Amino acid sequence: MNRVCLAAFLFCAASAPGWAQQPDPELVSYINSIKAIDNHAHVTALDREHDKGYDQLRCDGLSSSSALPPANLRFGPDQRAAYRTLYGFDAKTGDEAELKKVAELETAARREHGADFYAWVMEKAGIETVFANRTAMAPEMKPPRLRWVGYEDALIFPLDNSQEKAVNPDRRVFYGYAEDLLNTYLQDAGMSRIPPTLDDYVDKVVRATLQKQKNTGAIAVKFEAAYLRPLDFAPASKDEAARVYAKYAAGGLAAPAEYKTLQDFLFKQIALEAGRLGLAVHFHTGSGCGDFFDDSGADPMLLSPILNDPDLRRTNIVLLHGNPPRERNVSMLILKPNVYTDTSVLELLWSPAQLAEILRPYLEMAPEHVMFGTDAGPFAPGLEWEETTIIGTQHARRALAIVLSEMVRDGAITRDRAKEIANLVLRGNAAKLYGL
């Protein structure tokens, strides 16, 4: 190496960001000691084989995708470590025989621990409480360790969805799921079909469903609307929404613009009612599963009319997943007084070092509005809720240690402030937001 090249190399090495440096051992120890609150997970029932309630729009119902799964979700050191932590099993290759063994160990653990299975996994991960996103909680899922987040998308699509189903194969499946859930909500309200007027639908179906969810223990409600339509909810006239509803409640296909007006109106009624009941509103943001997911329609920047609506300032809104691959957009949105984000799925898609880089803008702008979440759930064979809980939690803690250590080294914060932020992200913000 000549002198010019050597000088250039040394300059670059000296000026490169410090993400590769080891995190502060004191911060690592402190972060690992915090009992976390998982803001977002898809917890499966003990009878995993027959459980369909862990999500409203289940990705496992889609036709096989030709895309490769992210590399971090393929067999590797993280899965091996999770198997050792949970079952004492040292997998070597992740081949079919080993994954069959893991499935047997999963089933055995659920059978052995019964209703204590969830606490058993959570203790190994250092988690105190998990928010379970489900259409309904299984009988064995009990508070305070497991808290319920219900689904509302079905309520904003009450008309004939034939046109929407024809957009692509994925939406055909997802709209079918939404229609099934709406039928459940209607049956709970003592109806076999939607009522003839919008006022009756809002009062006897929408508000009644949210009230029942609140009474049954829900602490938040969730929208996966980005799987069904863009997130461009906008102000909508009640008179126009009522006209559209009355015209098509008994049948017929509403024009897309008409149907959007009704959806937008219904969304606001749900958000208002959620705020009145003290339920936070969760939104899926960023990329999703399937071969036809509309990434551009999942950017929370499209929610600006909602986030800036004075009528909804009493409704807390959580932008789940940090909006990958446009994570920086979220760093400005969480400056709003009722808007939050979480880390869920980011720690499963990226390494701790990469997640640390994503987190820094959030923690520099509004650390009081950032929460830990895993998005743990049934991703693939050998990557069920229990394994992804272990992996996601370990990655999130490591990422927090990396980014906070770097901020301390930069002089942006003190070590004591770093500990405060770690506690806020891992549990404090969620405890305050949900009144735990």
Mean pLDDT: 93
Major sheet summary line? 8 strands, parallel
Report the count of strand segments.
8
* Total discrete domains: 1
Helix content: 40-55%
Residue stretches low in confidence (pLDDT < 50, at least 5 long) are 1-19
- Determine the N-to-C terminus distance: 60 Å
Give the neighbour order of strands across the main sheet. 1-2-3-4-5-6-7-8
> In terms of structural class, how would the helical and strand content be classed?
alpha/beta
Shape: globular
Question: Which percent band covers the strand fraction?
Answer: 5-15%
User: CATH homologous superfamily, by name?
Assistant: Metal-dependent hydrolases
Q: Helices and strands, in N-to-C order?
A: HHEHHHEEHHHEHHEHEHEHHEHH
CATH first level: Alpha Beta
Describe the structure.
The chain has 436 residues and is α/β, with parallel strands linked by helices. It has a single domain (38-433), classed as Metal-dependent hydrolases (TIM Barrel, Alpha-Beta Barrel), CATH 3.20.20. It is built from 16 helices and eight strands. The chain has helices at residues 3-15, 25-33, 77-87, 96-113, 117-125, 162-165, 169-188, 198-215, 238-248, 256-277, 304-307, 328-333, 346-349, 352-365, 385-409, 415-433; strands at 36-41, 127-133, 146-151, 218-223, 280-284, 317-320, 339-342, 370-371. It has an eight-stranded parallel β-sheet with strand order 1-2-3-4-5-6-7-8, with helices on both faces. Helix 3 crosses helix 15 (385-409), helix 9 packs across helix 10 (256-277) and helix 14 crosses helix 15. The protein is globular.
